[in-house]
Amino acid sequence: MDIFEEVEKFYKGVRTKKRIIGKSVFGRSIYAVRLGEGTPVGIAQYAIHGREWITAKLALEQFRFGPGAGSVWIVPLMNPDGALLSQCGLSSVADGAARERLLRINGGEDFSLWKANGAGVDLNVNFDADWGEGKRNVRAAASENYIGPAPFSEPETRALKAFTEEIRPDYTLSYHTKGGEIYWYYYQPLSACVRDKKLAIALSEATGYPLRHAAGSAGGYKDWCVKKLKLPAFTVEAGNDGFSHPLGEEEFEDIREHNLSSLCSLAAAVAAETEEDNERNEE
Asked: What class, spelled out in words, does domain 3-282 have in CATH?
């Protein structure tokens, strides 16, 4: 069973509020399921990079682990086309012309390290937050780092943008691989910086991962959430940095061990921070 089939089976079988937030380049559904009830509300998205498909398994495990405070919308497989290219290669692409184009872009038949979507756009540099200013950005279709022709040019990023703006979450969390570290900062003002670092420390304590600054990075989902929506937003790079891409079943136990409770821990920290804010406002 490939990762898309696994997520689709989970989605069809789970009894909770759920929805399809959009479609991929090749028409695959992007599923979202809600864990828990009430506030605070979060969004957690996984596998926006194709080769990081193992994080979709973490999403399903975290759902089974149970809710923390409030509710969180889990989007287990943000980039289904890229995930299947990494996991299954060109056999996952039905259209012959698309296969030929992808083969030219990739320069060979081994797609295991593919990060982009089905159009060769790196979704995590396609958001409107200093778009195109990342130091590793490229301006032609590639297996990674291509920013696309415009911000939100891709159906996947447009879907996540629209979903986030509709839900209006109190925080967002993105799971990637690898490195065993957490990114939280994106030039937010001092008051937000104090708030966000406090939450990041709670996430660090839950995972055992240190906090880092991503110098020269731009155009990511976290960056957009911080800059445009003024939200606390976090990226977790799951998995030991000694592992090699693409991380798979062999590395999953390490990912699970460090991250299973992290979503609940962050939700609890956001709830506590919100309560403290309310108490201060009442004084």
From this structure: alpha beta
